Amino acid sequence: MSPDSPASTSPHSKLRLYLVALAVVLVAASAAAVMFIVRDGSGLKVRYEVEATSKTATMITWTNGTSSEISKVPASLGETAGLPWSTTVTFKKSQQYVAVAVTLSEPGNATCRMFFDGEKVAETTNPGGVICEGTTP
Question: Are 133 and 116 in contact (CB under 8 A)?
């Protein structure tokens, strides 16, 4: 057998390999747990942005961070919301559904964007209306 063949690997080499793999897994799990604890305790700022070639929207809806409630503008039928539009909401829990949707009042392209703590996580453009959705980390 050659010294490079797998059968000639010493038990100590295998043990070192297993220990390194275990250390990598533990570090990754610890980092994920810390991110969850920090995120869960401090709240996540979610910014929604909507813009379009049209200057008004028939409706804009978005999740607002409290259970499954949805906020919308305009509040009454027959009214329109001005574009561009944006708002920021704080989500206090992880793994919450996050979404913003817009329906234009005139033909044109709409774009929505979502940011988690300032980092863009979604952007979509479609004619007539658009939705951006995701889950908080």
Answer: no
